[in-house]
Every structure is written in C-alpha cells, then in structure tokens.
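Researcher: We're teaching a course module on how sequence relates to structure. For the next exercise, students receive a sequence and then see the predicted structure as tokens, so they can try to spot secondary structure elements on their own. Here is the exercise chain.
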Amino acid sequence: MTTFSLKLLALCFMVIDHIGLFFPNAPIWFRYIGRMSAPIFVFCMVTGFSHTRNKKVYVLRMYLFGFGMGILDYIINCFSNGDYIDNNIFVTLFSIAVIIQLYEWIREKHSKAKTYLLLYIIWQLIGVIVCYYVDIYTDNIIYLFEGFMGNMFFNEGGFIFVSLGVLLYFIKDNKKYITIYYPLFCFLYSFITMAGIAPRILTRLNYYHYDTLFYISSFIFPILGFPVIGIDRYSIQWMMIGALPFILLYNGKKGKSMKYFFYIFYPAHILLFFILSKVCLYVK
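Model: And here is the predicted structure for the students to work with:
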C-alpha cells in the first residue's frame, strides 16, 4: 500500500469512528474500528515528513491547521451544551514533526540546533503552565489555547501519541522492529490504562499522606495522557493494534498526491457531523 492508500484507509476508519462519536445510536463497534485510524495517520506523517523537501513549510502548515482547528473546536463547543469536542490531531502531528526536526538538526550538527532545542523546551514549559491553568479555570477556551500553543502534552491523544509518532519515526523502515515495538507500545499503553495504574498510585500516595508526590503525580499523569479517575477495564484503545497489518503493507511509495484534501476534509467533516448531530437531536 502507498502512503495515499494508507491515508485513505485511515480516513475511512476515522469517519466511521466519528459517526459513532457524534451519533449516540450508532453501533459501538464503529468506535472500535476508529482506534486504527490515528496510528495509521501518524505513520503516514512520519514517513511523509522524512521525504518532504521543505520541512519548515510542512511544520508551519501543520501548526496553522492545528491553530485553525483549535478555533473551530472553540466555536463548535460554544454550541455543544457541555459535551465538548476535542478533535485536533493536527497539534499532535505538529508536535511529532517538530521533535523529529530537532532530532535531525542535532544529528546533522546544525549550527543552531541547541538554540532551537532550548527555545522549544522553554516554549513547551510555558505551554504546559498556560494550558494547565486555562484548563482548570475555564471550560471551552482550552481548545483554542491547545491549537495556539502547539504543546506536546495538551493535544488529542496527549504525550502518549506524540511518543508513538517518535517511535514510529525510528522504526518506520524496519518491518521487523515495527512488528515488535508497535504491539509492545499498544500492550503497555492499554495495560496502564485498563489496570488503572495512575489512579492506584494516586490513591496510595493520598492514603499515606505523601502530599507533595500526590500533587506532582496528579499533574504529570493527565498531561502524559493517562486517566487519573477510575479504572477503565473496558477501554477499547487496545484495538489500535489492528493498524499493524496495514502499516506492514506499506510499500515505501507515495502514490497519488492529494495532501490538501486530507487537511481540509478533517475540519470539514467534524463541522458537518456536529451540525447533523444537532439536527437529529432537534428532530427527535
């Protein structure tokens, strides 16, 4: 399969998933199928980024679409009656692209690599602080700030999916490594979530009055992407393992070029599904 074929397949999985998200009466297995979408998109992004000619333009384009999607999420959520929409995979992909670019600059001993790295770290720290307090003291506006700050911790999927993108970047050309490390990632992520590792740790720290560690952990676990309330034994995130066969079918070729179609389709279908869901609710 070419990159284009994989993107088209991931797009179909995403549409099915979002039908299940926006329309409550849709079969639950729609959400199951949707778990395969994001990993395929991430894989296509890291392979495409590795071969793009102008990486600065690529990163800038991803940021602008992420910021634009943040604005759209904010507007949509003004009419959502508290059931907020947080779909903005552009910020996640943007964070992956920046980290990869920084790594390549360091590897190539770029003259300003260390300066860029330092600036990025400072920017991320500021972003974490700003987004954290905005998320605590406001409701809807956090999605606008997520798009603006482009933070690796505050995005769709959290730091976990950013780390998945970095992992796939390093193993993308080795199908043996993909077969080993991608399932391992899926297992660890699912185990930590379904076993409620984070809530269990917080409960113990609170019980034994380790207040400092409790507050630090309460801050760190959510921004890493791990739930801290309840134990989600019925999490379906493990079904992202289903993306593996399709990733392994990648033949290293680009295929057709319709990049702006995917960029535009994402916000367009979110807006359309939101409007249709409200219409269906009104009709009932």
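Model: If you want an answer key for the exercise: The radius of gyration is 19 Å. The CA atoms of residues 25 and 113 lie 51 Å apart.
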